[in-house]
Amino acid sequence: MLILTCPCCGVTAEETEFHAGGEAHLKRFGPGSSEDEFHDYLFARENPKGVHFERWRHANGCGKWFLAARDTVTLEVYGTYPAQTHEPPQDIKDRISARHPGWTWREFA
Amino acid sequence: MKRYSAFAIAREALRNHTGWERAWASPEPRKKYQAIIIGAGGHGLATAYYLGKNHGIRDVAILEKGWLGGGNTGRNTTIIRSNYLQDPSAAIYEKARSLYETISQDLNYNVMFSPRGVMMLAQTQHEVRGYERTAHANALQGVTTEFISPARVKELVPIINLDGPRYPVLGALWQARAGTARHDAVAWGYARACSDMGMHVIQKCEVTGIRQEGGRVTGVDTTRGAIDCDKLGIVVAGHSGDVARMAGFRLPIESVPLQALVSEPIKPCMDVVVMANTVHGYMSQSDKGEMVIGGGTDGHNNYTQRGSFHHIEETVRALIETFPMVSRLKMLRQWGGIVDVTGDRSPILSKTPVENIYINCGWGTGGFKAIPGSGWGFAELMAKDHAPLCEAFGLERFREGRFIDESVAAGVAH
Amino acid sequence: MSTRLATGGRLIDRATTMEFTLNGKRLQGRAGDTLASALLANDQLMVGRSFKYHRPRGIVASGAEEPNALFNMGEGARFEPNQRATTTELFDGLTCRSQNHWPSLEFDVGAINSRLARFLPAGFYYKMFIHPRPFWKHVYEPFIRQSAGLGQAPKDRDADSYEHFHAFTDVLVIGGGVAGLQAARAAGAAGATVLLIEQTAHWGGRAPVDGGTVDGQPVDKFVDETLAALREMPNVTLRNRLMGAGVYDHGYVLGYERVNDHQPGAPGPRHRLWRIRAGQVITATGAIERPLSFAGNDIPGVMLASAIRDYAVDYGVSVGDRTVVVTNNDDAYRTAITLKTLGLEVPVILDARATGGGALADEARSLGIRVEAGKGIAKVRGGRRVTGVAICSQAGEGAVLEEIACDAVAMSGGWSPVVHLWSHCGGKLLWDEAHAMFRPDVDKAPTGANGEAFVIAAGAANGALHLRDTLADAQAAGHAAAARLGHEVKESAPPLGEAAPEVRLQPIWMMPQGAKTVLRMKSWLDFQNDVKVSDVQLAAREGFESVEHAKRYTTLGMATDQGKLSNINGLAILSDALNQPIPQTGTTTFRPPYTPISMAAIAGEARGETFQPIRKTVLHEWHEANGAYFEPVGAWRRPYTFRKGDETIEEAVAREITRTRESLGLLDASTLGKIIVKGPDAGRFLDMLYTNMMSTLKPGRCRYGLMCSENGFLIDDGVVARLDDETFLCHTTTGGAESIHGHMEDWLQCEWWDWQVYTANVTEQYAQIAVVGPKARALLQKLTGDDISAEALSFMGWKDITLDGVPVRAYRISFSGELSYEIAIPASYGRAIWDKLLSEGAAFNATPYGTEALHVMRAEKGLIMIGDETDGTVIPQDLNMEWAISKKKEDYLGKRAQARSHMADPERWKLVGLETLDGAVLPDGAYAVAQGRNANGQRKVQGRVTSSYHSPTLGRGIAMGLVHKGPERMGEVLEFPRVDGTVMKAKIVDQVFYDKDGEKQNV
């Protein structure tokens, strides 16, 4: 049972207030994109054992989507941040790097 | 291999069971095998077994990171059914179910397949229509099912509450020859048979890398050294993404926890398996007397084999509404497994971007019931590069938009 | 025999007698008894039968680890099986029945299994019952099921209530023994809020029984004083009868409070499930004594040494007159000393250690007790109760040196810290060689949301078994927990616990050390599941080398006690058989709950009506009062039809359709989703969301739109009305309101976050009533002065009007093919307008209709229904709805997906009408067969029925279906087999069955 903090309304709450929405930072590919691009956008997932960037919605709260950096093995939450961004903020990256020396953003990509 | 029988038991009893041999050998890995299967769960072992039995390929090693049958094979709720809607699903699950019918005799190992019947409750008009459609499809697929009335439901399951305040029972899809089996025994029986064919079941041997040359697999690196192979099958539910990454490709898969629980054992009170998909709960009674209960998956990626407790609450609540007597039972144990869920929630049995690497994964919440069929089909795919049972389950379907969607017939796919 | 002593019993009130029954026999206990102590006071040594061999079983323990003393308890709606006597507080009127026997506890037919035990070793069922095949299901399995299972199944609906409770605390201390008390005090003194919970009704744990002093005072005095101090602390909360059931991620702990189990029927809930969020969790859960493995250790009267001590000290109950103590450690001497002090006989203490014991042994000798070092039990004599023991050398193979008569055996194999709660959430263990026990590895504690440790084990649960160490460790734990949470801790000396020094125990996993097979086959590890030393050895021999394999093969530790007594002994035997050190074998996984908790508590209050509250429209009450036959639709209940008098459901539906088509029908359409989409970019946004072009819609007009997922599939449909330049109102399906609103927000917030669009789900702000039929306009005109003529409000237009004085919006849209208005009414006026429409509509025979009539009428018109014609695999092109897909737009959700090869395939199944040759109704969901079979032997198919109804309007069956290249095959006849194998034939026709030219709605 996770605890997450919604970066939009600032509330720290039980997992039951939130709705998980899968991997974050996916780039949308629309008409004109290649088969590979579109397939990877819709289906290919990092699904890492470790640091995962993911989407959550504060469904039973302020209703806002936000992003979280979370470890899928330890369930540590490195931080949450607004959804309106293309990559995690530096302080969250730093926190991850501190826990996983040598880690770099998009190491799986 | 010494055969198991009542006679063998009696013979051994007289010498205090000192004469039993190992169920499977514990060999040192060789330098090379014709085929390597990564993952000694039910699916991996069944694949090896049918490689040997159906295709004469016996130079096989099955590599297991932990202990055989220790993943989802040993963590599921043991339901076996084949009343699926879509043709490819019905084909592979019915193949599995029909193999389960005789598997104890085939393997000379009692896996306790018990065709006690599985019932899927229809609790909305939408579900009624969905299951009526499934019954029609099944009739043409050679899967024997029927849509039964609430009265018949009550007759088969006296402890059920037909008139719940929220969702009445409007009928059910009933598969009389579906049922349960002893999950561990399936893995053990296959392992024993594989070992008997001269295959190597190698436990505590973790694959750490996959070697390839010119886009073709050449072998694996393991915690017990490098091992060469001509063909490689990846059958590692819960870790598919990780192993695929070693081979250099990504999968349309997310790994999430699925939880289950058992009650304390009680005397027999429910002979059939009941699934209530509208409220997300299913229940059967094991031969030990425990009520075996499962529900839906957690929503977020998680490799801990633990889930969030509110899912247990929801499942138990649903079952108390369906079976009021559950209220005065106690939860003995809860646990979780990691299930690989694909983009269309149907499995992948496929060739891969790397030549001679094959992958069998993505069974989601429903892998146990498929084990013999999956092994049968996947062995054929590995042996011949083509298998009718696997045809529709290729990775390319996600590119083509040719999905196999079972959620169509309402509810969750377990 | 076991009996109540004349004196003693610190937990009982001798003055208060309580009556209870066992198997109908009336017995008496005292207030403060557990059911177990009361049974023992009545010489009820034998309490049940084991799972597999149906062997006689007696009470072994005094707490949560008890494997045997399980009862069917209570009657009727308060009946519950498998209630543990050792943790059941006695109450007046308690009724219980023993389990797993037939016909009676004393004479059990199943006990034949015990005679056959030789033929039923571990895993025998995997090797037997293989032939003949049908016998497993019909003969063998029913027998096995019947003989397993322990307690009876409850039958009635539960009469009690249950609840959930949320609690938040800095520090949660689990366990109210001396360690828990001291840890709570230390954390509390540092300023942390503390919740201290204890599973029993008593504080202090077992320390008061074990004796010793704290700061020079007796332990119970320390307990009283600490309790008093804690009660004075405003930041400390104490709750007993509240067990820590499970530790979960991020500091979530499940507490199980047995509020009223000791006073059934008292006001309030029976159980309360606590959902606790703690910053730090201290597990002060104590330790559990291990049995010793010797032949006959399962005979009633053989008990844990600590349990015999507990019954004597706590309840004034002696288990036997002559008790032989057998041990590998010093602690068990306390039992001998206690018994001797109470005037009971202890013929001998058998200390398996060649070097014998320390100070406590000296004390025992000084009391005149015979102590034999290096000796053990070869075999316990007796059947349903102990009659004696045969003594042997521990070092030998079991040659009997001496027979000693006794009626009880107190055994102790050392202590295992209760590490369950530490382990639930990933805490690791290490093997403590000196004490032969697994204890928490403090460097590998469970970690929480911030990645830091959040569980601290304290006292005996941390391996600090001696009173001095226990208290010091507990104080340190309390301080550490507070410090981790940022509280300032003033270091102080812990209370000084003093107790007799103990010399090192010697691990004894088998007694005697060289026990022969016949003895090992009688040496129990798991008393409830009947797993013996020989079974684990057999498992090892057969290759079940992993501890999980051995467990699953033998069922060791899988009983209702989850191996609290058996696990360590079992894995030690396994390690020995595999010739490897114990830590290499490891433990099985500890899973919640610590002891079984009621399903009812897990469910909480949300049962019956509150299980999933029904969502109701403002007209729901009217529906209920007027014969509605409801169907669940999402969270709603919608009237399927309104039955009048003796009508069947079919007759009612037919009447509703006929009346509507002839004159006037009224439908409660309030459940339809209504979402406002507003802003400068609203049109652009809807162009992405719908396949249609919505930005060109004129204010005052409506457009039917289709919505696809990014994966190309049709997910929802509905009418969009443009309210003004920047505002649209999107109707969704009933089930889609929330999900489509979420879908919109997802894209707005996460992809097009720079677009200026605002959405609001106003579904419940409006009641929506469809006024349908040739007389629709006439009825509305009676109630409004506004112009709603065909010219002023044309088809697919909308207009704000005043209806009976209420401002409403009228959409002229139709899902039935009739002249039709959907009236959106402020919800609070909904009922008034409904009533008015009914009363004024009486002149037109206004008829409320339900969802089935709705479905039939739309099918007569060939209109699709999401969920019928679509099932998540259908794209708009399959439904010949290219007209609703804008060719001008570069992009919309699903467009790229629909370009993939399978979706653009001309071979797809497409929507057509289907008409049976004889007018009968096609079965819903039937498939049209094609020639031959596929590679998997399945019959090939070429289409399927998506909707099928009897049309009262046309007097015959009508259907729609998806058929391979259907629209190109008009007039072809397809075969649809029924489930029973008979075949129906239907012709491919146009999907519009009624009023093809739309004359009825364009008036």
Features:
heterotrimer; B: 414 residues; alpha/beta; FAD/NAD(P)-binding domain; D-Amino Acid Oxidase, Chain A, domain 2; 2 domains; 8-stranded mixed sheet; 25% strand; disordered C terminus; C: 1003 residues; alpha+beta; 6-stranded mixed sheet; 53 strands; 22% helix
Termini gap of chain A:
29 Å
Topology order of chain B in helix (H) and strand (E) letters:
HEHEEHEHEHEEHEEEEHEEEEHEEEHH
What is the tally of helical segments of chain B?
Answer: 10
> How much helix is in the residues of chain B?
25-40%
> How would you classify the helix and strand content of chain A by structural class?
alpha+beta
Categorize the overall geometry of chain A.
Answer: globular
Alpha-beta content class of chain B: alpha/beta
Taken from the alpha-carbon principal axes, the silhouette of chain B is globular
CATH topology value of chain A: Folate-binding fold
In total, the number of strands of chain B is 18
* Distance between the ends of chain B: 36 Å
Tally the structural domains of chain A: 1
CATH homologous superfamily descriptor of the largest domain in chain B:
FAD/NAD(P)-binding domain
Polypeptide structure, described:
With 109 residues, chain A is of the alpha+beta class. Chain A has a single domain (19-99), classed as Folate-binding superfamily (Folate-binding fold, 2-Layer Sandwich), CATH 3.30.2270. Chain A has helices spanning 35-42, 90-99; strands spanning 3-5, 12-14, 19-23, 51-57, 65-71, 77-82. In chain A, the strands form two sheets. Chain A has a four-stranded antiparallel β-sheet, covered by helices on one side. In chain A, a hairpin with a 5-residue loop joins β5 (65-71) and β6 (77-82). With 414 residues, chain B is an alpha/beta fold. Chain B folds into two domains: 31-109 and 183-252 and 344-400, 3-Layer(bba) Sandwich (FAD/NAD(P)-binding domain), CATH 3.50.50; 118-180 and 255-342, D-Amino Acid Oxidase, Chain A, domain 2, CATH 3.30.9. In chain B, 29% of the residues lie in helices and 25% in strands. Chain B has helices at residues 6-14, 42-55, 87-107, 125-141, 150-156, 183-196, 240-247, 309-322, 371-384, 397-400; strands at residues 32-38, 60-63, 79-80, 118-122, 146-148, 171-175, 179-180, 200-202, 207-213, 216-222, 225-234, 253-263, 273-276, 281-285, 291-297, 330-342, 348-351, 357-361. In chain B, a hairpin with a 4-residue loop joins β13 and β14. The two termini of chain B are 36 Å apart. Residues 410-414 of chain B have low confidence and may be disordered. In chain C, a hairpin with a 2-residue loop joins β44 (798-803) and β45. In chain C, α14 packs across α16. Chain C is elongated and about 115 Å long. The termini of chain C are far apart. Classes of the chains: A alpha+beta (109), B alpha/beta (414), C alpha+beta (1003). Chains in contact: A-B, A-C, B-C. The interface between A and B is medium-sized, with 27 and 23 residues. β16 (330-342) of chain B pairs antiparallel with β34 of chain C.
